[in-house]
Each structure stands twice: as C-alpha cells, then as structure tokens.
Specification:
The complex is a heterotrimer of chains A (about 45), B (about 220) and C (about 230). Chain A is about 85% helix and about 0% strand. With about 45 residues, chain A is an all-alpha fold. Chain A has one domain. Chain B is globular, with a radius of gyration of 18 Å. Chain C is mainly α and about 230 residues long. Chain C has six helices and no strands. Chain C has helices at about 10-30, 45-75, 75-110, 115-135, 140-170, 185-225. Classes of the chains: A mainly alpha (about 45), B mainly alpha (about 220), C mainly alpha (about 230). Chains in contact: A-C, B-C. Chains B and C meet through helix 6, helix 7, helix 8 and helix 9 of B and helix 4 and helix 5 of C.
Chain lengths: ~45, ~220, ~230
C-alpha cells in the first residue's frame, strides 16, 4: 500500500467504522440496561 | 369571514399593548447600529454586504414576532379557548400567518429607513421591485415561522428552539432573498434574478400549503 | 415478553451477513477496483461517501412518510419509525459531512467548499438537530410526537428548494464530481452497487435494532407505571 493519499482513505474508513460501531454499542448498552431492569422488576413480583 | 375576525383579534391584541412591535423595532435598530459600528471604516465593502445584513436583521426581528404570536396564546391558556371556538384550524393558521406578516411589514416601515440611513446606503433605484421582494420574503418567513412557532409552543425552551429550527429551514429563502436584493440594488434586469423570485414564490407556496394542511395537528391539545 | 434484539436468530444471521458484505466491499475497494491516476486512494472514499448520503436520503424520506402516517393513524408504531429513521438519517448525514471534507482536503486543497450537495446535507443536519432538541425538550406525550411528525414532513418538502437555491447560490463551487455511474467500468460499478446494497441493508438492520429498543422502552415505561 504505497499509494498516495492512503492516510485519507484510512481515516475516512476508520471514522465510519468507529461511528457505526459506537452507535451499535450504545444501542446494545441501552437495551442491556432495560433488560436488567426488567429482570429485576419481574423477579420482585 | 372567520379569518377576518381572527386577524382582527391578532391586530387588536397588538394595538392594545404594542409590545411586539416596540421590541421588534428596538431590537432591529440595535442590530443595525451594531452593523454600522462594525463596518464603519469601509463603506464600499458595506455596500456589497448590504443585502445580507438587511435580511439577517429582518430574520432576527421576525423571531420576536413569531415567538410572541404563540407564547401570548399560552398565557391564561388563551389558545385552548381559541381552539374551542368553532373555527377551522387551517383558518387559524392563515390568521397567524397574516398576523405575523403584518407585524413584520409594519416593523420594516420603520426599520428600513433606519437601515439605509445609519449604514449610509442609497435606497435601491428600483423601489417597486425592492418593496415587492420585501413583501414576498416576509410572506415566506411568516409562513414557515408561524408553523414552527406553533410547533415549539409547548416545549420547555421554545425561546431558543424556534430560531434553531427556523434558521436552517429558511436558508433557501434567505439565499434567494439576498441574491435577488443584491440584483435589485445593482439594477440588474429582471431576467438576472427571475430564478430567485421563483424560488421565493415556491417557498411561500410550499410552506403555506404545508401549514394550511397540517397546522391542525400542531395546535390540537 | 422482553428479550434482546440479537436473541432472535434471524437478526444474528443478518448481522453476520452484513459484516461479511462489509469485508467483501472493503476487499474490493482496496484490492480490486482500479486506482484513479490523480486522486489515487482518496477517490476510494467515494465507495463509502455516496452510499452514506444515499442512506441518509432514504432515512429522511422514511421520517416524512412515517410522519404522514402518524398524523393520520395516531399509531405509536409510526412515531417510533419516524424517530428511529431520523436518528439514523442524522448519523449517516454526519458520516457524509465527515468523509466529504476528508476527501476534499487533498483533492480540492481545502476541506470545506460551499458545494451544493454538501451544503444541502449540512442544512438538513442542522434541521434534524433542531428536531431532536424539540423531542428532548417537548413534554413527553402525544403532542410532541405529532409536532415532530410535522417537522419531519416540513424538512423533507424543503429539500428540493434548499438544493436548487444552494446550487445557484454558489455557482462557482460546482466542483462536485458527477460521474455517470452507468458509464463506469465494471469493477467500479459493481463495487459501488455492492457498497450501496451493504449500506442499505445496514440501515434496515440498524433501524430494526433501534425500533426494538424503542418498543422495549415503551413496554418498560408502561411496566414502571403499573408498579
């Protein structure tokens, strides 16, 4: 990979990757929190 | 018919207190003064920037009127009373639209001479075209603005939500207004700025229509 | 019954399929497609930049359409679809706004130019920031949902006017490359199409993921009320 402007491509790709993964992860965390709360509430009953 | 009654209500309300108009004009004059101070050393550059400055003043000032037009209704819960009257909601939108339009126009009768006086600009050589443009753009701002100010009315921080939504929404209108005003100020032939006029008119039609059709959903409790 | 999004086998398969497609596209972009003699690697950002813009476009269309349906049916389902699409549309908008300048820096010499499409995307981005603030600060309930549907529709009908006005406003900045895709050589064409498909599938997947979360959230708040 000695092509010109490779760093630009790489940074664009990494930004897209990081943003999408960050998004998926944040959804996953919020879902996990909800499910934990749900389990806690339903075990109390 | 109903429209006339509602419009009369808007105007009467304003005539009683005059708070919207007074604050619009004072605020507008303050902004013009700021511009005059910032651009003092270079009147030639100022002439190039004049259309842009003019429309930013108008837009800033319009926020006051648009905001007040719905927040006034919130006090004493007047809006629910208005809504309980047997009035078509679309007519209510038209009354807000034209009411705001009139406020804008009246404030400009005073602000425009100040603008040209303080910034030491010559009045456009085609006054008819210039005033026509002014009326059209005011119609555009107030159509989108009435819809949006109705939309944010119940939100907690509606004072800053309104400009936040309004400014990007009216960018096409502002671009067209600045471009066509610049053309008029330079006395360019109509064919040069016809496109901008078409854009302004389509903006008015689109937002007038959207507001007329869905304002119903905005104001319902 | 509440369960996580990935507990369904179909969703797991979809996630794996999209990851594989993503890797295939990356391979094609890096190793198969031809190198542009002037732009070299920078040109390859296009395989991600354009599909992001396309996805943002579908998302905003979905916001407007579901807004319309919400106003007519008052069904919460449509509001969820509108909110999820608006979030994803803004996310992909952000990707367009980030990758655009990264490409433009070496090619145009400056990261930002008031180019019509870039400007239109920026304006849409700003409008949707307002949309989220409205949802954030509006009272929770029916009214805010209705009002955001209205904003979604108004924002979308505004797109053509924004585009045309920005286009003629900065007539000197018409630097945006406009390659006719059908005239492109096969390697470029098919890689681009595959990337487009990958992004579209990814969008649908993320949308369903977000919708699932929204459903859980409303179930949960109902459950909290019961207790």
């Amino acid at each position: 990979m000695t092509y010109k402007y490779f760093a630009y491509f790489l940074s664009a790709f990494l930004v897209i990757f990081a943003v999408l993964f960050g998004w998926i992860y944040s959804i996953y965390r919020r879902e996990k929190e909800l499910l934990d709360e749900y389990r806690r509430l339903s075990s109390e009953d | 018919m109903m429209l006339r009654v509602l419009l009369r209500k808007e105007i009467l309300l304003e005539m009683r207190s005059r708070e919207i108009l007074v604050s619009m004009i004072t605020f507008g004059a303050a902004v013009v003064l700021l511009y005059a101070f910032s651009f003092r050393p270079s009147p030639e550059i100022l002439r190039q920037f004049a259309p842009g400055l003019l429309w930013t003043v108008v837009l800033f000032v319009s926020v006051l009127a648009l905001h007040r037009s719905h927040s006034l209704e919130k006090e004493f819960d007047a809006f629910s009373l208005t809504l309980s009257a047997p009035v078509d909601r679309s007519t209510l939108f038209l009354s807000k639209w034209f009411g705001n339009f009139l406020m804008l126009l009246i404030s400009q009768v005073i602000l425009l001479p100040l603008f040209f006086l303080f910034l030491q600009l010559p009045f456009p050589s085609m006054p008819g075209a210039f005033i026509g443009l002014l009326i059209l753009v005011d119609l555009g701002i107030s159509s989108a603005g009435s819809l949006l100010s109705g939309a944010v009315m119940r939100a907690r921080v509606n004072e800053f939500l309104l400009p936040l939504l309004l400014f990007p929404m009216v960018t096409p209108l502002m671009i067209s207004a600045v471009k066509s005003t610049a053309a008029v100020m330079e006395s360019q032939p109509f064919s040069q700025w016809k496109l901008w006029l078409q854009l302004i008119v389509s903006f008015i039609i689109v937002f007038g229509l959207v507001g007329y059709l869905i304002y119903d959903h905005v104001c319902e409790e | 019954m509440m369960e996580s999004f990935y507990s369904k086998a179909g969703n797991r398969i979809m996630a794996i399929a999209i990851s594989v497609l993503w890797l295939v596209v990356l391979y094609l972009v890096l190793a198969v497609t031809r190198i542009d003699p002037d732009q070299q690697m920078a040109q390859k950002i296009f395989y991600y930049h354009v599909p992001s813009a396309w996805t943002a476009g579908i998302a905003f269309l979905a916001v407007a359409v579901s807004g319309g349906f919400y106003l007519f049916t008052q069904n919460e389902k449509w509001d969820h679809l509108g909110l999820a699409s608006a979030e994803l549309g803004t996310l992909f908008c952000a990707l367009v706004l980030i990758t655009g300048p990264i490409w433009a820096k070496p090619i145009w010499g400056e990261p930002w130019s008031w180019e019509p499409r870039l400007t239109t995307v920026l304006i849409m981005f700003l409008i949707y920031i307002g949309y989220f603030l409205l949802r954030q600060f509006g009272e929770i309930g029916e009214r805010t949902r209705r009002v955001s549907a209205v904003i979604g529709i108004a924002a979308f009908v505004n797109v053509p006017i924004i585009y045309v006005s920005v286009k003629f406003w900065s007539a000197e900045a018409q630097l945006h490359p406009q390659p006719g895709m059908s005239q492109q050589p096969a390697d470029v064409y098919w890689t681009f199409i595959l990337s487009l498909i990958t992004f579209t599938l990814l969008f649908v997947h993320l949308l369903r993921n977000r919708l699932h979360l929204l459903k859980l959230q409303s179930q949960m708040s109902r459950m909290r009320d019961d207790i």
